[in-house]
Write a structure and sequence with these properties.
There is one protein chain. By secondary structure, the protein is mainly alpha-helical. The chain has one domain. It has six helices and no strands. Helix 2 crosses helix 4. The longest helix is centred in the middle third of the chain and has 29 residues. The protein starts with 9 loop residues before the first helix and ends in an 18-residue tail after the last helix. The model has no long low-confidence stretch (mean pLDDT 80).
């Protein structure tokens, strides 16, 4: 790890900004919808599965070269395989005999949580490695801390916007966007809640 007093290079600053934008957009989107409805939607998990499975499969066909992306360790491949394990377990859980306290339900819930909270950041890392040249240059402690701070702020902001969506969105906005209408949305023309 570098000393935080060392200067930040132009390449590292560029990688930092691109990473902050890409990661924040994804995190804030997921936390916004969690704030609106209080749950993680299947589509968010499905997107994670699609991208993780594609990255996992692609990693088997790329020759080993001297880049971090192409040297996916077995632990990385394991993380990218977790969403597939979740999908298989979800298919095996009998929906008709659903029991909230059953071991299968708890296993599915834990695997869903791990898939979302552990696989997702690693998947974003792999995507950024592929898309952002020289991401491995982001080693300055100040920038790494700032990136984590930005993600925390944007995740919290997305959640806050979601929980208070009635201040700036109406039921029509959700309907026009093809989304379910939350119970606490306000009708068009109603006064903004105080």
């Amino acid at each position: 790890m570098r000393n935080s007093a060392q200067p930040i290079s132009k390449a590292e600053a560029k990688v930092f900004v691109i990473s902050a934008i890409a990661l924040s957009a994804t995190v804030a989107n997921a936390t916004f919808w969690f704030g609106v409805f209080g749950r993680i939607f299947f589509t968010h998990i499905l997107y994670i599965w699609i991208a993780a499975t594609a990255a996992l499969l692609a990693s088997f066909f790329i020759p080993r070269l001297e880049t971090p992306l192409l040297k996916l360790p077995w632990q990385g491949r394991f993380l990218l395989a977790l969403p597939t394990c979740w999908l298989v377990l979800a298919a095996l859980v009998d929906v008709d005999s659903y029991q909230p306290d059953s071991p299968a339900t708890w296993a599915l819930w834990i695997l869903t949580l791990v898939s979302a909270l552990v696989t997702f950041p690693y998947l974003l890392y792999v995507i950024i490695l592929a898309v952002v040249p020289d991401i491995d240059r982001l080693t300055h402690p100040k920038l790494i801390g700032a990136l984590l701070g930005i993600l925390a702020v944007m995740g919290t902001a997305g959640y806050a916007l979601g929980t208070h969506h009635d201040l700036f969105l109406t039921c029509e906005n959700f309907k026009a966007g093809g989304h379910d209408i939350p119970e606490n949305c306000r009708a068009a023309g109603d006064a903004v809640p105080k």
